[in-house]
From TrEMBL:
This is DUF1707 domain-containing protein. InterPro entries: DUF1707_SHOCT-like (IPR012551). It comes from Nocardiopsis suaedae. Residues 1-53 form the DUF1707 domain. Residues 47-74 are annotated as: Disordered. It holds the Pfam family DUF1707.
Amino acid sequence: MRCADADRERVAEVLREAAAAGRITLEELDERLDAAFAARTYGDLEPLTADLPEQEANTEPLAPSAGAERAEASRPLVLKSSAGTIVRKGEWVAPRRIEVTNPMGSTVLDFRSAALSSGTTEIALTSSWGEARLVLPDGATADVRVDASWWGSVDSRVPADPDRPNPHFVVTGEVKGGNLKIRYKSRFDDMFGLHG
């Protein structure tokens, strides 16, 4: 099962406590922290604390919670239009996954004042023959894996590698014949009324 950023952070805290107690070296701490933040599943996380005493390697954080709050946070936000305009700006809740379909339309997602539900936000974007702009909080990073073949373009002005604890975005999808721009606050803000 896929793990969340909160699970990675809990494991990282266990590792830091183990290093402070002298159970693992600082070099081991660095290696395990790298592995923890790169983990995708609970199976990836479990070996990182398996050799630590039970009170430190508490497995409870690795068990997915079943509360309604977690279910709500994991539900994707689906935004659909065709040749229309989709805008999210100001104060809004951005769940872990956002799915946008707006061919031949204009899409603007401004995350600067958004409440992010996860340290990593996934954006699945279909905006072929249209335009899309993502405005990220200062310091945020974005791994962009978008198909822009057939005269499309992707222009990201933010770093791709995660820089914790800053928010990280993973952008997938396609903008064939269209364009995608990813920025921090920029001149586009005034053009699109992004003052929030």
